[in-house]
Design a protein that fits this description.
Blueprint lengths: L6 E4 L2 E6 L4 H7 L1 E5 L11 H8 L3 E5 L12 H4 L2 H6 L1 H17 L1 H11 L7 E6 L1 H12 L3 E7 L24 E7 L7 H11 L10 E6 L8 H18 L16
Parallel strand pairs: 3-4, 3-5, 5-6, 6-7, 7-8
Antiparallel strand pairs: 1-2, 2-4
Length: 259
């Protein structure tokens, strides 16, 4: 069970729960897994899961593989600028392994959340920022119970040739609702591949085009501005409100917007 701070382990993964009343009540509205960026922790970018909780959802913030409570002891040796310059492919392979292994945990996490009454199989979403955005795309391929995803400055195209990179599989995404929030001058996750991925999705969403959306924030880099951090939070909440619809009699009390 959760302690006073909402700290738990879900399928062995360190997590924080955020909710307005109880996990069980929030799960009626929908459960959203939240993943931080590279080098971060489940506590990072707390306004996003906090906004989801205020909107009535159960937000589950998770430490990615090799991060947070399970940070690699040699993280700073593996992932430093000198190694990236000297051995780019080897270092990038280690980076992609973090994404792949984190996404591979999603089915087990959903299984346990459902078993605990902290998720309903038809109301599960995944969202993340940067590395977490990459995980969001990959989660759709990992588990068909993922009904909606939001990527904030993440990419569906892995940086090395990989047959399992999400951008190679646009045919496997429908009917999951996909929102991609990009930055025009992003130095880490440039918008071109994200835009191309959405173009590839369009034929598969022809019957329901509203299920996909691509937004590029103009004039900004990967970090975004405080104002766009707020805007992306509002967009994230609105997306899950639309695509993780609550059933009759399930409306949470005290729902508030992103502040």
């Amino acid at each position: 069970m959760a302690d006073a701070d909402g700290a738990v382990r879900v399928a062995g993964v360190p997590a924080l729960l955020r909710y307005a009343e109880s996990p069980e009540v929030a799960a009626r509205r929908g459960t959203v897994l939240w993943y931080h960026g590279f080098g971060g922790t489940k506590e990072r970018y707390a306004p996003y899961p906090a906004a989801l909780a205020e909107a009535g959802f159960l937000a589950v913030s998770l430490d990615a593989v090799g991060h947070g409570e399970r940070r690699y002891p040699d993280f700073d040796v593996i992932f430093n600028d000198e190694r990236w310059d000297a051995s780019f492919e080897e270092t990038e392979t280690d980076f992609l392994r973090v994404i792949d292994e984190t996404a591979a945990e999603v089915p087990g996490i959903i299984d346990e959340l459902v078993a605990r009454g902290w998720a309903r199989a038809d109301r599960v979403g995944v969202a993340g920022r940067s590395l977490g955005g990459n995980v969001s795309y990959a989660s759709v391929l990992a588990d068909s119970r993922v009904r909606a995803v939001v990527s904030v400055v993440g990419s569906p195209e892995w940086t090395l040739p990989r047959v399992h990179s999400p951008h190679h599989h646009p045919d496997r995404f429908f009917p999951a609702a996909v929102l991609s929030l990009a930055a025009e001058f992003d130095e880490h996750c440039p918008p071109g591949p994200i835009r191309a991925f959405h173009a590839a999705l369009e034929p598969f969403y022809a019957a329901e085009p509203g299920r996909i959306a691509y937004v590029a924030y103009p004039g900004v880099r990967h970090a975004l501005t405080p104002e766009l951090n707020d805007e992306s939070g509002r967009a994230l909440v609105a997306w899950f409100r639309r695509w993780l619809p609550e059933g009759a009699g399930d409306a949470p009390s005290g729902v508030r917007e992103w502040k």
